[in-house]
Amino acid sequence: MKNYPHNIDVQKAEEAGIRFYNSSQEQELAYLKEALKRTDEEKFLFLTNLMKMQLVMQKGKCID
User: Fold this and answer.
1) pTM of the entire structure?
2) Measured in whole angstroms, how far is the alpha carbon of residue 61 from the centre of its chain?
């Protein structure tokens, strides 16, 4: 593999933690595996954030 500019960019992105997937199934499986590793506290905090966002969305008004 030669160090063309786009290859260097991909390497930098991978070092930064950005992942690339070959298929949507592979991406979905990675998300599920990552979710299983989360602690109960992380899951609870995520749920409370979702609930807060729901309240904000319910109070919002659409203006044309």
Assistant:
1) 0.54
2) 28
Who's near 21: CB < 8 A, 6+ residues apart?
27, 30
Distance separating alpha carbons of residues 60 and 54, to the nearest angstrom: 10
Query: How many CB atoms neighbour CB 27 within 10 A?
Result: 13
30 near 21, Cβ under 8 Å? Answer: yes
Could you tell me if 27 and 33 are in contact, meaning their C-beta atoms sit under 8 angstroms apart?
no
Contacts of 27 (CB under 8 A, 6+ apart): 21
Residue type, 34: E
Dump pLDDT digits (tens) for 6-60. Answer: 778 878 888 888 888 889 999 999 999 999 999 999 999 999 999 999 999 999 9
